Amino acid sequence: MGFARRELFYVGGACVIGATGLFYAIRWIRRVVKDLRNPFVPIGVVAELYIYPVKACRGRKVDMMECSELGGSNGEMNDHHFLIYNTSTNHDLEINRCPRLVIIDSDVRNGTLMLTTAEHTPIRVDLQKVIGQNKIVTVTMWDKLRQSGLDCGREVGFWLSNVLDADEPLGLLYYRDGFYTERWSQRGYRWFFGLAPVKDKIAFTAIAPYMAFASESVKDVNSHLDENHQVNSRNFRGNIVIDGCPPFDEDWWMELKIGDAEFECYQPCARCVAITVDPATGMRDEGNQPLRALRQYRLAPEGKLRNIYKQDPIFGVYMGLDRRGTIRVGDQVFARYKNKPL
């Protein structure tokens, strides 16, 4: 009996080792084939980097970004780690319903979140106090999926209601890893003949941990607008803006390599009325620009993608992280190109 058990143990161990070896062999072969078919080529340099500590609020322009699977960070600022919500309905607040969100600036230092606007007295939130109070709230977000976080207290809620001229009571939620979530960013399927899903954890971002586009794409949009409706990269709320490549080059990106970090580009970014909000004033464009212009020439191609995105035009690409690293403004950017766009 002892011999049989030992034999079973050895056979099981051999199977595990064999399966592990097969996994890494397949991974290596796929990498070699990809390098031959779609090699990395230089396409430009990083022009701008943004972190959005509070979902839907003003982005912080930074010179350096630490990239992890959850999103970008700089110092104590982490991308999309706070969310404003309606405390009556427990729904998150979005730019399309409350455009004034974009006038709220944020910073995190020494364990304290500070919210500011040009018109109001700043407010500070002690994050250790929030953690200690441990008031867990679950909110409903995009696609009716729910996610939990820590409520940051009544004082900041009153401040937000005042700043946003809100009729409903508001609160601020703080993301904590390990809390309940129904929200994941699924990039697709890989390994073992495409049966293993690749899923990224996300904080309070809508779709994916990262979004990027070419600066020439913004210039191309402006070429379709008159001088009274010009936009800039802040309208499109990306994390990484890249100089040196053609307009809408992002339609063709398969992967990006910047500094030590590597990203997989896996889904186009469909645009809504949020891009019509002036990032400086929080006012909507009366002519519905640049959304109206983009609908004239940037709708998804007819077929499956058009059925998904309908009249929402495409601008930018969502990305997940394949390899952690630090990226900086001025870093050279390398891309693998797909054989067809989008």
TrEMBL record:
Residues 182-336 form the MOSC domain. Keywords: Membrane, Transmembrane, Transmembrane helix. GO terms for molecular function: catalytic activity; molybdenum ion binding; pyridoxal phosphate binding. PANTHER family: METAL-SULFUR CLUSTER BIOSYNTHESIS PROTEINS YUAD-RELATED (PTHR36930), MOSC DOMAIN-CONTAINING PROTEIN (PTHR36930:SF1). The chain crosses the membrane at residues 7-29. It comes from Toxocara canis (Canine roundworm). This is MOSC domain-containing protein 1, mitochondrial. It holds the Pfam family MOSC_N.
